[in-house]
Amino acid sequence: MKSDKGGVYIKRILKIAIPYTIPVMLGYISVGMAYGLLIVKSGLSLWAGLAMSVFLYAGAMQFVAIQILIAPINLIQVALMTLFVNIRHLFYGLSFVDTFKSYGWKKQYLIFGMTDETYSLLCGVSAQEEIEQETLFFTILILNQSYWIVGTVLGALVGNMIHFDTTGIDFAMTALFVVIFIEQWLANKNHLPAITGVLSAIIAIKIFGPSQMVLPAMVMMFSFLLVVRRYKSGGDNRG
Fold this sequence. Notes:
Blueprint: H1 2-41, H2 46-56, H3 60-70, H4 75-86, H5 89-100, H6 106-112, H7 116-124, H8 133-158, H9 171-187, H10 192-208, H11 214-238
Helix pairs in contact: 1-2, 1-8, 1-9, 2-8, 7-9, 10-11
Protein name: AzlC family ABC transporter permease
Organism: Fusibacter bizertensis
Subcellular location: Cell membrane
């Protein structure tokens, strides 16, 4: 009887979580396959790519890791490169620090699995009365990493059987961001965060250039939204 109830609960969770992750699934399987293909073409094994997708799971940094493995550089360079590629995750963590601290052991995986796309999804997830929020978040992260792992394996398996130009396949990630952005714009009445993000990105590109714009844009977005939050909090306290 208990197992039946557990199975029903799991089905209910998946029924809610899977629709949220469909855009990520399409992007992650496509880009994951590109990563798997690149692993094989670089002379690395399927197991190396699979291990990175399971234990590293860092998206763009995994592509960088291929170059590090085939042309090793010193540890200081690796550390600095990793910091600059993934420093944006600092801001993701700050956004959820209060939410995750009460999630117990699940918090560790939620921190590990917080990718760009997953962060965007969690920001737009609505509260579900049927299941706990932490369970929904946890399930979404597991599903998203599973898509990436499946893409990696598929790409590596077919890498030696098909030959085609993969130039531009990484645009799937850009398209994925656009889809998630539109969905959140339509789902939320407050468009200030979205407008702030767009304007910050434009300003950062103009000032710092495309290759150096990520961190300045994140700083501008975070600073502006923090000021707005404090202003609203002050207004509520005065009221």
